[in-house]
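Sample A.
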Amino acid sequence: MSKATSTTSNLTTTSMLTIIVILVTVSTTASYYAVNFSHGTSTSSATTASSTTVTSTSGQPSSSVSTTAGHAGNVTLGNDPNAAVYDSANGYVYVVNSNVFGEASISVVSGMTVVGNISIGRGDYSSMSSMVSDPSNGDVYVASQFTSSVAVISGTALAANITLAQNPYALAFDPQNGYVYSANYGSNGVGSTVSVISGTQLAATVKVGSGPDTLVYDASNGYVYVGNAGSYYLSLISGTKVVGNVTVPYGTFASAYDPADHYVYVTTAQAASEGNVTIVSNETVVANLRAGIFPSALLYDPADQYMYLIAAGEPGPQGISTVVAISGAGIVGNMTVGNDAQGMVYNPDNQEVYVALFGPNQVAIISGTKVVATVYAGESPTAIAYDPSDHSVYVVDYGFVGPGAVTLIPSS
């Protein structure tokens, strides 16, 4: 079983894709366009423009947003998409189609075209951190808890399927040695190893704490920091050896690196409880901050030099998510974004952060410490990625009670 399976994990959808173009105009003069690739049989139709509001951090409406839908067409994509990663070597976006009751696959997307569809076997691909790309050669690695393996994708083909001793959950790439590290959470959190992968081969297995579930590379010291969900410490790996430990609260979940301050941020929490973010410099804890209910994701913004944190909130339709902005070791903003935030991505074109909102089928757009817009995506957005080659944000829409989707939001 997966550590944190999405509420959508027991649903399947059909595999036809629709293209819908949506124009969203914000009263602040910014414009956002969404191109939606959705599963199911397409229906050409014109939709009457409608209005909604964007809520500011004060809770008052700050701007009016209207949407207009038009043009439809068909392409093919797999079932149950819930993770995506951009590959800078070839300019493709790779989307995992979990197909939870059948054969999983990877859709390879270039702009508005699916250029490949690769079968990777039945598996559990429920985490955005289960995908990583190697920019040196363009290979994409995908971890499957169900089959205890890591698939290696080269271009539009399956290059290898690496079998591991324990179920992998999260992956990280080390540009210094070219290794891919796999945190092997194991079955129900009983794993205790990190696999070190070189190319398409297993190079080493490293013993760490209980239930490793998140990894991040620190460019300032060359260490890979491993969060151990079942232990009270991080394991620090250099190459293929553990070189140190850092004490943190119980229940690690997400991690990220701040290249400006050379800090590593790690969230810890029990499900649906008040969480914490621990800030680490080398092997020293700099600060522990309260991070809201269930801090589930982190993202660094190089323009503002903020670390953004999603506090997902209580589970279910009534749970409201917030995004916390952290500068160095202090909180500088706290923004309400909507129901059930799933993931974030930074867009360098406009220096804004995009947040996928599963509940309202929207993407919230943040500039600094303010929500400046919301854009309608497809049904139930679960993951998000940015493609600098076509200057678009790709939103993976699972399709909770209807067709799944991949939605493109160009920067302008």
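Sample B, a different protein:
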Amino acid sequence: MKPSPINSKLSTVFLALALLRGCVPCQAGETMDATKVNRIAVAIFKSEGGYAAAYLYGIKSVPYRTEAEARRICENSIRNNYTRWLASGCTNDFIPFMAARYCPFDQINWTRNVNYFLQPKKP
């Protein structure tokens, strides 16, 4: 069966809009590269209060002894939530999706703060 020209045009338009928006349709099995994981971990660290925080990286539910352990837990959370986000169909942006699990009681502020630290700094 030949695909209809309307569906083909809609698919092309959808893909173009997604690319213009800065996101591409997510694909199951895709992984987040180490650079992105690092950027998000740094943004979480800063938004949670950095070294002055009572809980580094906002990690409260898993015991840790060192900053390196807290960071590893945070990075694992980022990767695991990314996998969940892909499986969900990527219906919203990744950071708000992660906020629902990482900071369920203050999602709006957490999302705003993490996104702030993810923005490139102006010279």
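Observation for Sample B: The chain has one domain: 31-118.
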